[in-house]
Amino acid sequence: KAGVTQTPRYLIKTRGQQVTLSCSPISGHRSVSWYQQTPGQGLQFLFEYFSETQRNKGNFPGRFSGRQFSNSRSEMNVSTLELGDSALYLCASSPQGAVTEAFFGQGTRLTVV
Amino acid sequence: AQSVTQPDIHITVSEGASLELRCNYSYGATPYLFWYVQSPGQGLQLLLKYFSGDTLVQGIKGFEAEFKRSQSSFNLRKPSVHWSDAAEYFCAVGGRTGGFKTIFGAGTRLFVKA
Asked: Chain B contacts of A107, Cβ < 8 Å?
């Protein structure tokens, strides 16, 4: 079974731009969660989607948004990028929900300059 | 409030020595507990999980963890560390309280010396 695939792996953007990250979950998994990982803040929960619906959301500004498609693939978007958005963005999929065992992708390293 | 505390930012052990990584959690209901490992530049890999039942759980790569409800702890152990175990380890707690999300600790970086 293929694992969780995140694209792109690396991204460099300029302040003020927007970015879209993609995540393809493991086949059959209906839940996709997104996390931001930084050296200072650790792993922080962004949001979780289950069957195309956002089921839970972390404490991030509205510039961070996401969606899930009918095939369970998910995208997250960050608008008006700030330097502090530089981070490793991790996607995780699970069969039932974010509370159960999660399988992580390798992440997208976003650098904002 | 739900939280996970990993008191040790980093730990150094000699190869072949035993290892214990500490984890304490705060959760309003029965927690689901996890340990993940992350190698540099990689995503997280699940080592083991506790949902219910036997409080001593076995995981991959020779790791085990013990759930102690009275102490709100879920410490990770390994009897003999290998150089390849050098990585960052994350304890996590999840459940239905507060919605479907898993909360991670800050991580413990493990260094292994020859």
From this structure: 42-43
Contact (Cβ atoms closer than 8 angstroms) between residue B41 and residue A105: no
Mean pLDDT, residues B67-94? 95
Residue A75: the pLDDT is 98
3-class DSSP state for residue A105?
Answer: coil
Residue B98 has pLDDT above 70, yes or no: no
**Token couple for B9:** 């930012």
Please indicate whether, in this complex, the C-beta atoms of A42 and B105 are within 8 angstroms of each other. Answer: yes
Is the model's pLDDT at B9 over the cut of 60?
yes
Dihedral angle, C-alpha A35, A38, A43, A49, nearest 10 ° = -10
Comparing CB atoms, the residue among A45, A104, A107 nearest residue B101 is A45
How do B56-58 and A108-112 pair as beta strands? unpaired
Chain A contact for B59 (CB, 8 A cutoff): no
CB contact at 8 A, B47 and B57: no
Residue B46 contacts A where some CB pair is shorter than 8 Å: yes
Residue B30 has pLDDT above 70, yes or no: yes
Question: For residue A101, what pLDDT is reported?
Answer: 78
State the nearest Cα–Cα gap between B105 and chain A, in angstroms.
8
Looking at residue A99, what is its pLDDT?
A: 61
Return the SS3 of A71.
coil
Q: Nearest-CA residue of chain B relative to A88?
A: B41
Interface of B with A in 72-111 (CB under 8 A): 90, 94-96, 98-107
Has residue A111 got a pLDDT over 70?
A: yes
